[in-house]
Design brief:
With about 220 residues, the protein is of the alpha/beta class. About 40% of the residues lie in helices and about 15% in strands. The chain has helices spanning about 5, 25-30, 55-60, 65, 70-90, 100-110, 125-150, 160, 195-210, 210-215, and strands spanning about 20, 35-40, 110-115, 150-155, 170-175, 175-180, 180-185. Strands 1-3-2-4-7-6-5 form a seven-stranded mixed β-sheet. A hairpin with a 2-residue loop joins strand 5 (about 170-175) and strand 6. It starts with a helix and ends in a 6-residue tail after the last helix.
Length: about 220
């Protein structure tokens, strides 16, 4: 994805810009399901940092333990569950020891993660602010999604923000909408404070019901 034109947009001029995308391209190509997470915004916590960076490259350079954030563990566990759902056809029981499973780490590295707001990110998101970026950048966001070409797009509390841009999406199943040639899942943000088990079983149970719709042909 060429982010040069993105940076030239009025909302992004002279602001700290964080690129995003696929974490590990080799693992992405091998993934049973290519999953894209559409999130809100990333941010640079240090006011002294001048060199811009890419979220996907940063995440790819760290282990989940090194990252240390519960939200990334949630993302990884969901991805591992989705992969196992494809292989077995069933939702696997919540594994209390998932943090020691190398397959969870590999699943995390096989995904793509992009944000609606790519500059001037904050630690706390405001709906009105994010909506401005959707209005400004939707054409580029859709271009980025098409370039990544995922099988499944999990929206981390972002679907209501992009829904007005999706024309007339078809609700295909629980939390699942089809439009623009893609399947969007309207789900919680992975940092949502519901217990890990509730988030895991909620997402995987819904995806099991609709698996025949979003499962890629190569995984059959």
């Amino acid at each position: 994805m060429d982010f040069i034109s993105w940076r030239k947009r009025e909302l992004h001029k002279e602001k700290f810009f964080i690129e995003d995308g696929i974490l590990n391209k080799d693992l992405w190509e091998k993934a049973p399901v290519k999953v894209l997470f559409l999130m809100k915004e990333a941010y640079e916590s240090s006011t002294e940092t001048e060199q811009e960076w890419a979220l996907n490259e940063y995440l790819a350079s760290k282990t989940l333990k090194e990252l240390g954030k519960p939200m990334w563990w949630s993302v990884a566990h969901w991805l591992d569950g989705i992969n196992k759902l494809i292989v077995t056809g069933e939702v696997q029981s919540f594994d209390e020891g998932y943090k020691s499973d190398p397959k969870v780490e590999e699943a995390f590295q096989s995904c793509a993660i992009i944000n609606i707001k790519k500059s001037a990110g904050q630690s706390s998101s405001a709906v009105d602010d994010l909506s401005k970026y959707v209005d400004s950048d939707w054409d580029l966001l859709l271009e980025q999604i098409k370039a990544i070409n995922p099988d499944l797009i999990i929206c981390g509390a972002t679907y209501p923000l992009i829904a007005p841009k999706l024309g007339k999406p078809t609700k295909s199943a629980e939390w699942l909408y089809q439009t623009e040639g893609y399947y969007f899942v309207d789900f919680w943000h992975p940092s949502n404070q519901w217990p890990y088990k509730v988030k895991y079983y909620s997402l995987l149970s819904a995806l099991k019901q609709s698996k025949e719709l979003w499962q890629p042909l190569r995984a059959l």
